[in-house]
């Protein structure tokens, strides 16, 4: 499953934002997001199938955490766009500097 397509869904991005800060159980995510347990579980399943999160069983709970691989792939995909925008912004800065001097 394509990580970009999976993360296009706003609720999944909210879950990822919470997991970026710390590992969480489903009940902690439910509390943080103000959503029902079935809804959070449904989104976690999609994130797990895409390899974006993994779950580790601790006692009676599953603790979810982010996996770096899909984010490295997204970063690699974004790299040419980042370079393009960096170039365009540098050109804009040079243009504005010339207008100030002129």
UniProtKB/TrEMBL annotation:
Pfam families: HTH_5. The lineage of its organism: Bacteria, Bacillati, Actinomycetota, Actinomycetes, Micromonosporales. Keywords: DNA-binding, Transcription, Transcription regulation. CDD domains: HTH_ARSR. PROSITE patterns: HTH_ARSR_2. PANTHER family: TRANSCRIPTIONAL REGULATOR, ARSR FAMILY, TRANSCRIPTIONAL REPRESSOR SDPR. This is Metalloregulator ArsR/SmtB family transcription factor. Residues 1-86 form the HTH arsR-type domain. InterPro entries: ArsR-like_HTH, HTH_ArsR_DNA-bd_dom, HTH_MetalResp_TranReg, WH-like_DNA-bd_sf, WH_DNA-bd_sf.
């Amino acid at each position: 499953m394509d990580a970009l397509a999976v993360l296009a869904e706003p609720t999944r991005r909210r879950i990822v934002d919470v997991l970026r800060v710390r590992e969480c159980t489903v009940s902690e995510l439910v509390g943080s997001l103000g959503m029902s347990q079935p809804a959070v579980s449904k989104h976690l399943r999609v994130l797990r199938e895409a390899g974006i999160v993994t779950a580790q069983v601790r006692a009676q709970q599953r603790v979810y955490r982010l996996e770096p691989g899909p984010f490295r792939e997204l970063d690699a995909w974004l790299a040419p766009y980042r370079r393009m925008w960096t170039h365009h912004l540098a050109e804009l800065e040079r243009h504005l500097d010339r207008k100030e001097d002129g």
